[in-house]
């Protein structure tokens, strides 16, 4: 069985830097568009309850494109090489952004969002496989933490920039956000290509049995790592999309919210590699359990804020809960990479992209429709369903781990 080589044997530094930089640019561009999409579509800075459902449906097509094709992207990355798929995805996303900048037709935007989802899945599956290929088992949590830091901080700082842009630029000029996003994607592609030029890069398997690759990728132990992301991204996707209009509804200016979210991005950069190192030392399962508990607390405090309004104790509680929740990502990504075989690594890591895109789709549709019909009660039902699902899946993984092997560190403690 092939094992993951140590990074020194692959000159890992530059390929990893290429992935981290490309990831940040891609997610920064995506964050900008998420922040301004609702205003770009409707031409209004806030949404009525009736408009929420329509805009949510358009936004949900990006995850549809991602989850419906990401396994094919993973298979392609295993067969033809990681960087070939990564660069193709980034180039496609840049072209889509340019196209979006010159139309506001809701049906055309829906189709463009679908294509962007296809590109996004290709980017993520190939990127995660590269990180797993170029990190040894004893430092995989740390490297996945660095990836997650770039991934999430790109989303959040891009979202903050988009909110600031939305608050300072006329609605008629919001196409600049998409053109800027396209420029970022092109810049990230060029920088990453320069970094890996002349480097020894994995070129894929010469022979590949697709049915066997997919079967290995959907093993029970893989699913118990990936399925909790389904519920987590139901929450994250919904929060990112509706945070802007919700904050304006309670009187928080877009520029102030942008500053707060930008600060959150800095916290991610500082904490994710550290949490990944903790996962290397104390075990993936332990950090994942703490992170899942944090997400449960986030939803509890979010429900209290919806019911009673923002207050210092509730905001402090949700802040601490978010910090705990951040422990989940690096540990879970490292656990998934530990379970993957080199021959089907991109396909296995594509399961992550599949589950988070389905989670974003279901979250956007469920939250927008529940809120449109039931108002705040719909949000309580939504948060309760997410919390229940995450608790059940976390318990299932703990039982599976306890039944097959001691619940100790996945890699030797250092």
Descriptive account of the structure:
- The protein is mostly helical and 414 residues long.
- It has a single domain, classed as Growth Hormone, Chain: A, CATH 1.20.1250.
- The protein is 81% helix and 0% strand.
- It contains 15 helices and no strands.
- Helix 9 runs antiparallel to helix 13 and helix 11 runs antiparallel to helix 15.
- The protein is globular and about 50 Å long.
- The two termini are 26 Å apart.
- 53% of the residues are buried.
- The N terminus and C terminus are likely disordered.
Provide a short characterization of the protein structure.
This protein is mostly helical and 414 residues long. The protein has 15 helices and no strands. It has helices at 13-42, 49-59, 61-80, 82-100, 106-133, 140-168, 175-196, 210-217, 220-249, 254-282, 284-308, 312-325, 328-339, 345-374, 376-404.
Morphology call: globular
User: Element order, helices and strands?
Assistant: HHHHHHHHHHHHHHH
User: How many distinct helices?
Assistant: 15
Q: Quote the average pLDDT.
A: 78
CATH architecture: Up-down Bundle
Which homologous superfamily in CATH is the superfamily?
Answer: MFS general substrate transporter like domains
| Beta-strand percent range | under 5%
Compute the separation of the termini in Å: 26 Å
| Low confidence ranges | 1-11, 403-414
Cα gyration radius (Å): 20 Å
How many E-type strands? 0
What is the CATH domain class?
Mainly Alpha
Features:
single chain, 414 residues, mainly alpha, Growth Hormone, Chain: A, 15 helices, 81% helix
List the helices and strands and how they pair.
Blueprint lengths: L12 H30 L6 H11 L1 H20 L1 H19 L5 H28 L6 H29 L6 H22 L13 H8 L2 H30 L4 H29 L1 H25 L3 H14 L2 H12 L5 H30 L1 H29 L10
């Amino acid at each position: 069985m092939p094992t993951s080589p140590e990074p020194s044997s692959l000159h890992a530094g530059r390929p990893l830097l290429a992935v981290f930089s490309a990831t940040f640019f891609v997610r920064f561009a995506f964050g900008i568009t998420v922040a301004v999409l609702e205003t770009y579509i409707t031409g209004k800075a806030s949404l009525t309850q009736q408009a929420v459902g329509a805009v949510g449906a358009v936004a949900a097509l990006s995850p549809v494109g991602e989850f419906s094709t990401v396994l094919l992207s993973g298979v392609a990355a295993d067969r033809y090489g990681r960087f070939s798929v990564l660069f193709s995805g980034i180039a496609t996303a840049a072209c889509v952004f340019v196209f979006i900048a010159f139309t506001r037709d809701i049906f055309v935007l829906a189709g463009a969002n679908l294509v962007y989802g296809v590109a996004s899945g290709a980017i993520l599956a190939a990127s995660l496989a590269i990180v797993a290929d170029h990190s040894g088992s004893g430092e995989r949590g740390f490297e996945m933490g660095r990836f997650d830091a770039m991934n999430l901080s790109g989303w959040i700082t891009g979202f903050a920039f988009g909110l600031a842009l939305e608050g300072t630029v006329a609605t008629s000029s919001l196409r600049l956000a998409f053109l800027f996003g396209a420029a970022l994607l092109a810049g990230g592609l060029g920088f990453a290509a320069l970094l890996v030029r002349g480097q020894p890069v994995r070129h894929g398997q010469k022979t590949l049995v697709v049915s066997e690759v997919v079967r290995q990728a959907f093993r029970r132990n893989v699913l118990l790592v990936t399925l909790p992301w389904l519920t987590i991204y139901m929450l994250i996707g919904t929060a990112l999309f509706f945070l802007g209009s919700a904050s304006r509804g309670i009187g928080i200016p877009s520029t102030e919210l942008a500053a707060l979210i930008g600060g959150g991005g800095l916290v991610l950069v500082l904490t994710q590699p550290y949490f990944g190192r903790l996962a290397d030392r104390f075990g993936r399962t332990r950090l994942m359990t703490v992170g899942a508990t944090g997400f449960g607390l986030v939803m509890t405090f979010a429900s209290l804020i919806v019911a009673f309004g923002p207050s210092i104790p509730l905001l402090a509680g949700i802040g601490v809960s978010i910090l705990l929740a951040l422990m989940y990502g690096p540990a879970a990504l490292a656990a998934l990479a530990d379970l993957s075989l080199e021959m089907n690594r991109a396909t296995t890591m594509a399961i992550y992209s599949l589950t988070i895109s389905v989670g974003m789709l279901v979250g956007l549709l469920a939250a927008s429709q529940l809120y449109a019909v039931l108002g705040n009660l719909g949000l309580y039902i939504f948060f309760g369903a997410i919390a229940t699902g995450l608790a059940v899946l976390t318990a299932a993984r703990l039982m599976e781990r306890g039944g097959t092997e001691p619940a100790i560190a996945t890699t030797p403690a250092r």
